[in-house]
Design brief:
Elements (H helix, E strand, L loop, with lengths): L2 H12 L2 E4 L5 H12 L4 E5 L2 H11 L7 E3 L4 H15 L6 H7 L3 H10 L5 E4 L5 H11 L10 E7 L10 E5 L9 H19 L4 E5 L10 H16 L4 E6 L1 H5 L1 H7 L11 E3 L3 H13 L4 E8 L5 E3 L6 H15 L1
Helix pairs in contact: 1-13, 2-13, 4-5, 6-7, 8-9
């Protein structure tokens, strides 16, 4: 059984509820059918029931096993609008603005998550990342202890010698462009928790740089060292080390030579990149030249599971991300 199949099986045993707000997209409707028929998660769709049912039929999908909740249903939307207003009035939102925003399927789905009516949210198939995540950043926010929401990829390599039986976590590869030391520390802490949740193994976190243990000195390397100190201060039991080059993080002989005695060098399973350039380049090289499967980008650090799909995603991608959301909701 592949790692992705293991995630799906774990999700199936958890019986979580995931909201899919983008019901205007036929991929969402087809994914909903798969999720329900294969009993991976319970699905909540947002929109007018008659229109969703008609659109699903046109798309060749059966969504009769899904719950459909409409923002037009005042018994549901009015309390959600009031809650949204209470959450955002200090930022200048009016009651009227909240009532208008709750008609937006993305805000409506996010408020269902905020109020505990669902366990996770998956969107982004037909919206930009900024539009899809804006409601969650406003009302779900980062989980306690973090100030930074970030993204990650699960890199599933055919060679089991890498990471944990071939599974590694790369972050941040899609959201925080030039993280500060404080943000980098948050990204490392969130990545460790994510890896433990999804892979069910101890994270070994490498704070990457072009330098290893002082082989070079610059503002960039100093930033990584400050981030490392913050992570160790906030999570003293976490297995983390840096700064180190990627070969020192992954190759035992290089790690032993460059970082003798390090608990991470040569056996890292979580790679924390110093900026978005490095993270994006790194995951694509691993995917294209290394033959790894890239599952993501996924979102971490939110108080509740909220995920952003690629607009080029497939039905299978949506299914897998929903399974990830269910496992992260555990």
């Amino acid at each position: 059984m592949s790692f992705a199949e293991q995630l799906v099986e774990r999700a199936r045993n958890l019986e979580k509820r995931i909201v899919l707000p983008e019901t205007e997209d036929e991929r969402t409707l087809k994914a909903a059918e798969v999720l329900v028929n294969e009993r991976i998660v319970d699905v909540v769709l947002v929109g007018d029931p008659d229109k969703i049912t008609s659109d699903a039929k046109d798309a060749g999908a059966d969504v009769s096993g899904c719950e459909i909740i409409s923002p037009s249903d005042k018994s549901v939307s009015a309390p959600l609008a009031e809650k949204l207003y209470q959450l955002r009035k200090a930022k200048g939102m009016t009651q009227e603005q909240a009532e208008e925003l709750i008609k937006d399927y993305l805000y409506f789905g996010t408020m269902l998550l905020k109020e505990g009516r669902v366990d996770g949210y998956v969107g982004g198939a037909s919206h930009t990342t900024s539009d899809n995540l804006r409601p969650a950043l406003q009302v779900i926010k980062a989980r306690p202890g973090l100030k930074t929401v970030s993204s990650f990829f699960l890199m599933i390599h055919p060679d089991p010698k890498w990471g944990e039986n071939g599974v590694m976590l790369y972050s941040d590869c899609g959201m925080v462009e030039m993280p500060t030391a404080e943000q980098l520390a948050d990204i490392a802490a969130a990545s460790a928790k994510t890896f433990n949740q999804l892979v069910n193994a101890e994270p070994r976190v490498a704070m990457l740089s072009y330098s290893t243990k002082g082989s070079a000195s610059s503002p960039d390397t100093e930033k990584v060292l400050r981030a490392l100190a913050l992570v160790k201060e906030n999570a003293p039991d976490l297995v983390v080390d840096g700064e180190m080059q990627v070969d020192a993080a992954l190759i035992p002989s290089v790690g032993e030579r460059k970082c003798k005695g390090s608990p991470v060098a040569g056996k890292a399973n979580c790679l924390i990149f110093p900026d978005l350039d490095a993270g994006n380049i790194g995951y694509k090289i691993t995917e294209r030249l290394g033959g790894a499967q890239a599952l993501g980008p996924l979102v971490q650090g939110m108080a509740k599971p909220t995920h952003d799909l690629s607009r080029g995603c497939s039905v299978d991608d949506i299914v897998k991300v929903c399974a990830v959301a269910a496992v992260m909701a555990e």
